[in-house]
Amino acid sequence: MVYKASRGIEDIYELTYIRKDGSRFPAVVSITALRDERNTIIGYLLIGTDNTARKNTEKALARANALQNAIFNSADFSSIATDANGVIQIFNTGAERMLGYSAIDVINKITPADISDTKQVIARAEALSLELGTAITAGFETLVYKASRCIDDKYELNFVCKDGTHFPATVSVSALRDEREAIIGYLLIATNNTALEQAAKIRLQLAASVFTHAAEGIAITDEQGTIIDVNDTFIDITSYAKDECLGQGWSMFSSDKQSAAFYADMWEILQAKGLWIGEAWNRRKNGELYAEMKTISAVRDAHGVTTNYVVLCSDITQMKEHQDQLEHIANFDVLTGLPNRSLLADRLRQAMVQCQRRHESLAVVFLDIDNFKAINDKHGHSVGDELLIIVSQRLKEALRGGDTLARLGGDEFIAVLANLVNAEDCQPVLKRLLLATSELIVVDDIVLNISASIGVTLYPQDGADADQLIRHADQAMYLAKEAGKNCYHLFDTAHDDAIKIQRESIGDIRSGLDRREFVLHYQPKVNMHTGEVIGVEALIRWQHPTRGLIAPIHFLPIIEDHAISLEIGEWIIDEALRQLSEWQNISIILPISVNISAHQLQQSDFVSRLEMLLTAHADVSPHHLELEVLETSSLTDINHVTATMNACCKLGVHFALDDFGTGYSSLTYLRRLPASLIKIDQSFVRDMLDDPEDLAIVEGVISLAKAFHRKVIAEGVETIEHGTTLLQLGCQLAQGYGIARPMPASDIPQWLDNWQPDDAWNV
Ligand code: C2E
Ligand code: MG
Ligand code: MG
Questions:
Q1: Among 8, 324, 495, 741, which is 20 to 30 Å from 710 by CA?
Q2: Over 90: is that where the pLDDT of 66 sits?
Q3: How many domains is the chain built from?
Q4: Contact (Cβ atoms closer than 8 angstroms) between residue 750 and residue 533
Q5: Where residue 21 sits, what CATH number does that domain have?
């Protein structure tokens, strides 16, 4: 600096000064040489000014410049500045990229109108009702016009690139003014909308293609339900042409498979929730029914008012058919087409419910073909199958309209006969079923002669559940087989109850005894010839609180070997003696015979216990008590029994030998046991009219009794003829249903008053 100054070269320098505190600042410095009159340099003058503010401004300017450049070179938007006439003056990098022109191509040469879709611009101008020239620039002037009046606006313009392609852009235009507010040019900033438009277009295309090509049928209706558009699938499903659908209501497809209530419900749900999903049966143009899965959604506007409905539907007819097939396979027998076990169980349950409601009966009929296995073995399975098909058809024909026929498998069929007002009403049907199976069947020229065995149980008389009813009918069917086949057998609920009781504990019988549920009924014994009533037999019954009157066969065998049988045995004697005394008090002298089991008779203290009982009823004569000894064949120690009976006879009691002829009652018993009466077992008496062998036995017993000087009485005299024959054979004493059934003690006086022997016996 000094050098230059010494040579008179004036210059300005930028220096950094350091203050006393060490801080620095930029300074502009000039140095001048100071000279004397001889021009000798005597010093230098430095004039320095603080340059900080200027430096800062310079930096800001540089930054602004960089930004400006960045804007101008941005690829994301194009900046185009024109002069007041619209001729392009600035064309940034973004504009170059977007439009394909370089700045040199356009600056001072063209207007923005030259590179935009003029038709569009003119249309826009017209829409604004502006008076514009016809020049190409006219459209662009619209923008300019507005910009010059400071109306900010954005325009959607189509730019035309150098290569002739178009692209949509959003353009904003602002007027550029000088300090006197005169317009010196316009700035256009445009962003490329292609991507956005593309996306929107794709969305629309997608929606359109979904609508057109959806695998589901789609229909759009107005708020009234009038169809305004349908897609191809919808046309495929309904087989109506599009034109035929448009303007129509939904009812054009409806079938009568749905009730009016169904549609009312549907509308109600739609209105409340804006959505209904469900299945419905509709009708195609050709009248064919089809099942559809349907979703109806309400389209609502911003105020929540329904403007349209969109109906999506798919044809599920095949699915339904498939489902039906599966259900059919699950519920029907493949061979005969009849319901199978599982469907039968359903139907039976329904029938039972209906039965209860209507107070009717139903019969469960179990039918099994006799010797079916033999047919299969002899003629082969295909003949067997054919036979089953024919039988199933015949059985069906033999049934009534509302009856169900099912095949359980093999040769087992079940029929449910419903709506029986009386239980007997099923009998004609059972006979028809037997007849239907016993008629000759011809399969492949083979003549088959078959029959069937049928077991029947009646509901609600048999109060079991559905499964048990089938089991009971099955059990009864086995009894029909045992009885010789080709017949039906009714399930015996009483017998079944007995089996159930057997399963129950002796404890029940014990509590029955404690609750005084046992009673004695009395069956008269008469002399048919004289008409005299010679006595009554006491027969025990269990008056059960829920099962009703139970016969001895159903509970005595259970307690046979149990101590309680002795207790009951004693109660019977005690009760019979009490009854004798009661009758005696009303002047009825009627001997009572009581059944005594072999087990009871063989008790070591039998005599003393009997004596105690007789003593307790001292007003009753022991002569009026007779003991019927049962199961004589199981009397083991004849000497002991003879002694016991003799001791009892000494007390005044009589003996009878019950059920004589059954088991292996030996003559020794007859000879040695002090029994004054022999009872001919009812099994021989019952059949003696038809069975010569039984008749021979009856005759034999009567002769034996005479030979051994014993009285003889016939049990089971069910008819007058029985009595007549017995009288002819020399047996005058009789007991049986033909004379009187066992009855409660209270009925005896009246019976005694009314009874008379039949005239036929009066010989
Ligand atoms: P049971 O001593 O031979 O008694 C006669 C049975 O034949 C009785 O049956 C009676 O109701 C029945 N009966 C009478 N007349 C006819 C007829 O004309 N036709 C037919 N089909 N049956 C007739 P119930 O009362 O059922 O007694 C059956 C058996 O149970 C008795 O045979 C007897 O062995 C035993 N039993 C009955 N009550 C007693 C009892 O109090 N003690 C003992 N230990 N056994 C008894
Ligand atoms: Mg008896
Ligand atoms: Mg008997």
A1: 741
A2: no
A3: 5
A4: no
A5: 3.30.450.20
d(CA 139, CA 135): 8
The CATH number of the domain holding residue 431 is 3.30.70.270
The ligand 1 atom nearest the CA atom of 520:
41
Mean pLDDT estimate for the chain: 86
Same domain, 307 and 400: no
Measured in angstroms, how far is the CA atom of residue 552 from the centroid of ligand 2?
A: 11
Q: Is the pLDDT of residue 132 over 50?
A: no
Residue nearest atom 34 in ligand 1 by C-alpha distance: 630
Q: Tokens for 241?
A: 């042409």
Nearest alpha-carbon partner for 348 in 469, 227, 439: 469
Number of Cβ atoms within 10 Å of the Cβ of 733: 22
Task: Detail the DSSP E strand segments found in 445-562.
Answer: 446-448, 452-459, 488-490, 518-527, 533-544, 548-550
Cα 663 to averaged position of ligand 3 atoms, centre (Å): 12
* Cα of 539 from ligand 1 centre, angstroms: 6
Q: Whose CA is nearest to atom 33 of ligand 1?
A: 595
Please give the residue range of the domain that contains residue 31.
3-58
From the CA of 718, give the closest atom in ligand 1: 18
pTM of full prediction above 0.90? no
Q: Which ligand is nearest to the CA of 494?
A: 1
Atom of ligand 1 nearest to the CA of 679: 3
Is the predicted pLDDT of residue 138 greater than 50, yes or no? no
Mean local confidence (pLDDT), 346-354: 93
